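Problem 12. The chain below contains 146 residues. Write out its predicted structure in token notation.
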Amino acid sequence: MTADEAEDPHAELVRPFLNRKRPLPPMSPDSDSPNAGSGVRAYAMTGGRSQAAVQLEFETMLQATGDGREALTAVRFERAEILRLCHSEPQSVAELAARMKVPIGVVRVVAGDLLAEGYVQAFHPSVSVADDVLLITRLIAGVRSL
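Solution.
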């Protein structure tokens, strides 16, 4: 910052990032931000990638495989957390993101890697509603109960 910018009272309004006198707010673990408490950015969690080798939808259900259960002690960070959450019952990609309090893109990339390595298995949603027999059965039962 030059001396002219320091003396100009409007420089702060034009370029607020130059105001270095203002302290940064501390990150608290109780914050509602997606990376609260971890201090780690999403690109660090995914190794800088925005897409995985396998495309996962929000509603794709993931379940840890036998290899995934064995690898639980060997893997770390988000990979271990996904395996731990999918250990006992299937979880959707959206549920994992909510429980881990990380962006859904992070879960899609990390879970896609786990799927490619054989640590989780994916149950993809039906292509169309007409193919989902259980959904249709539940709808019929719901209409009958009315």
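Discussion. Strands lie at 61-64, 91-92, 120-123. Students who got a different answer should revisit the alignment rule from Section 12.3.
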